[in-house]
Amino acid sequence: MRKLFVLTLLAAIFFKATAQDVPLNKGWKLAVGDSVQWSSPTYNDQHWATVNVTQSWEQEGHPDYNGFGWYRIHVVIPSSLKEKAFLKDSLRINLGSVDDNDEVYLNGKLIGRFGGKTGDIVKGAFYGPRTYTIAANNPSILWDKENVLAVRIYDTGGDGGIYGTNFSIGMADVMDHVSVNTEADFNYGERNSLSKSIKLLTTNHYDYKGKLAFKVTDPETNAVLYEKTNDAAFTGGKPFTYTFEIARLEKKSYAITYTFTDEKSGKVLTQTETTPYLLTPYPSAKPKINGADVFGARPGNPFLYLIPATGKKPLVYKAQGLPDGLKLDAATGIITGTVAQKGTYPVTFTVSNKLGSKTKEFTIVIGDKIGLTPALGWNSWNAWGLSVDDKKVRISAKAMADRLSAHGWAYINIDDGWEAEQRLPDGKIATNSKFPDMKGLTDYVHGLGLRMGIYSSPGPRTCGGFLGSWQHEEQDAQTYGDWGIDYLKYDWCAYSEVTSPNPDLPALKKPYQVMRGALDKINRDIMYSLCQYGWGNVWEWGAEVGGNSWRTTGDIQDTWRSLSSIGFNQDKAAPFSQPGHFNDPDMLVVGKVGWGPSLHNTHLTYDEQYTHISLWSLLSSPLLIGCDMGHLDSFTLSLLTNDEVLAIDQDALGKGASRYIKNDNYQIWVKELKDGGKAIGLFNISDKYQTISLDKNDPALKGFTKFRDVWQQKYIITTGKTFSAKVAPHGVMLVKVSE
Ligand code: GAL
Fold it and tell me: How confident is the model at residue 623 (pLDDT cuts 50, 70, 90)?
């Protein structure tokens, strides 16, 4: 499926196989389709294809298959499992991850079900790890005999099936429902110290008593910086809290390991995390103007631009050379109005406060193109999924206005989950009860100097099962116009039902052309973001159908595997990046994410998050924050407010970086910039520290004498023939070179 609903509850109690577990990684068979007989232990599945469950059924040769499919495996469940186990009452079956809904049968008996009624397009269906626990005395279990486990899947779209690594049968363990909750923010103290509280939690009534070992290591040297073991006791409803402080840290990530050992059972649980470190310099109190150097709008349409500026408030804004029809609010920096005449208008912005003033040359281009630089904004999906509501959007808008818009962040985009299930009698689209007043909400967002985005799908339904725009495109575009919408993300879901089963290029383009035509009739500049996962090499024709951006991939997840496989595979699309038309490798997964009502800290390490923002900026991607904006911790804020990094993303040349060097340990990506310089990302893709070097005579560097560390915003003194950087595992050194 394309929607990613991570079930945080299950993720938190992600069961690992133990030594004596029976592995279920191999021996599965698959048939797509559906039949009641397929659950039966006597059904002969010998003719079924053997399947590799590390990958989806699409990857196993069922291209773009959505619908039902069955997996079967024959497995002996030895009674020795029970005999050797500390707890003997329940059997646990780990089924990797399921995409989307499933029913599980053991020897013909239904033993578990997930995702609602299988076969429905379930709103809020979950792609995620699946574990079923049944009583050890359940008569369906044939101890020491062959058992048939049959899993019926329903996939709503995109990848489908069961896939992953965690496949096994074992006995439920005392540690199954224990977790180390590391969700609290780190506190930053004086002299580079960090402190934090973590909790040992369980939903069990078993009394856990033992030792918690806490260890901090430097991944560069493997030196142990700090080690301490404490007594720890907890049970259901009574967590154990451990608070620590680590002093005098350098600007890098350290590894923390928490190991709890339960005395009675001897069972051990280990969890790790890394420590944050801030690279972005603290903003000065003096005025500074940030953001892109250029902004495009169409003649005759409402214009809205907030001059992004930092510095101690109050700030006073001025703009010289504004085209006729525009006016600036000197106290807020918001420019509004309408320009009738096409043209390129050079403007000088000035921002002042008690400490001084700063000017910046800026260009307003009134013409046919909008979105001359990639969109910078927030989208509700990676945080809230379908649970987005009016209040969450207002909180996000307020947070953006208070903390981010000074750096150029401007869009507040509502993803799926705002639509009703039925159209109004006149066919108009309506909101559901979570959005009682869309026009009022949009007015609020505009009042903050921000722009408002919305989501739809060309099919009869969206991916989340709400109303899509099929056969109502013009009416919907009109409604968006009436509400004051500035951005439309247009998906694909359910369009498969109304087009040919294997759409050719014209068929892939069609729904986007239809909506483009509808948007062109509206008197608003609506950024048009295509979301069809890169099908038909959309980067080759996204601009032709009028897209300002197009998704080049399936949905991102907050893991290194997802981030790196998406981010480092964008070189094919890079040549198509240009002002007004950008590749979109999907939204950001930094901060607190969750795809639903309950959020968790991104599973990316801090170095991976630096890589994420650096790589996406090099690629000239839209940067759409996907986290809870109401709780931006210091690290996330510093990650999103580095003006020199954002300037690389917003560079007016609009080029996408291309891969320059690739080997097993690192990759170097280079982006040409408007001022003649280059932005270069040295990415360590390995698990160990790497020194990444480039000869100064290499064509990528030749002629450049200045090397700027973009994250730290300072020049690097380099002597010798090579430029070298020591880069953390999965981390980056982002440099800007100039003459
Ligand atoms: C997916 C899309 C996601 C999100 C979701 C909403 O197809 O890739 O980004 O928009 O639909 O249901």
Answer: very high
For 659-738, the fitting CATH number among 1.10.760.10, 1.20.1250.20, 3.20.110.10, 2.60.40.1180 is 2.60.40.1180
Q: Is the pLDDT of residue 602 over 70?
A: yes
| Nearest-atom index, ligand 1, CA of 416 | 6
Q: What is the pLDDT of residues 200-234, one digit of tens each?
A: 999 988 999 999 999 999 999 999 999 999 999 99
Flag whether pLDDT at 17 surpasses 80.
no
Q: 385 by DSSP, 3-state: which? A: helix
Task: For domain 376-656, give the fold.
Answer: TIM Barrel (3.20.20)
Domain 6-171 grouped into CATH 1.25.40.10: no
The region of weakest confidence among 147-161, 219-233, 362-376, 662-676 is: 147-161
Q: Is the pLDDT of residue 7 over 50?
A: no
What SS3 state is found at 12?
helix
Span between the terminal Cα atoms of the chain, in Å? 48
Q: Looking at residues 591-601, what average pLDDT do you find?
A: 93
Ligand 1 proximity of 103 Cβ (cutoff 6 Å): no
Q: Which atom of ligand 1 is nearest to the CA of 493?
A: 7
The predicted-structure confidence for 683-731, as pLDDT tens digits, reads as follows 999 999 999 999 999 999 999 999 999 999 999 999 899 999 999 999 9
The domains spanning 376-656 and 659-738 adopt the same CATH topology: no
**For residue 739, what are the β-bridge partners?**
none
Question: Does the domain spanning 178-274 belong to CATH 2.60.40.10?
Answer: yes
Q: Which residues participate in catalysis according to the annotation?
A: 491, 555
> Distance between CA 657 and CA 202 in Å, rounded?
46
Q: What is the CATH number of domain 288-366?
A: 2.60.40.10
CB 217 within 8 A of CB 224: yes
Q: Is 100 in the pocket of ligand 1 (CB under 6 A)?
A: no
494: CA distance to ligand 1 center in Å?
12
C-beta 159 within 6 A of ligand 1: no
Which is it for strands 411-413 and 376-379: parallel, antiparallel or unpaired? parallel
Q: Hey, where are the domains in the chain?
A: 6-171, 178-274, 288-366, 376-656, 659-738
595 ligand 1 Cβ < 6 A: no
Ligand 1 pocket check for 381: Cβ under 6 Å: yes
Q: For ligand 1, atom 3, which residue shows the shortest CA distance?
A: 3
Burial of 197 (0-12, 13-18, 19+ CB in 10 A): middle
Give the predicted TM-score (pTM) of the model. Answer: 0.91
Are the C-beta atoms of 690 and 730 separated by less than 8 Å? no
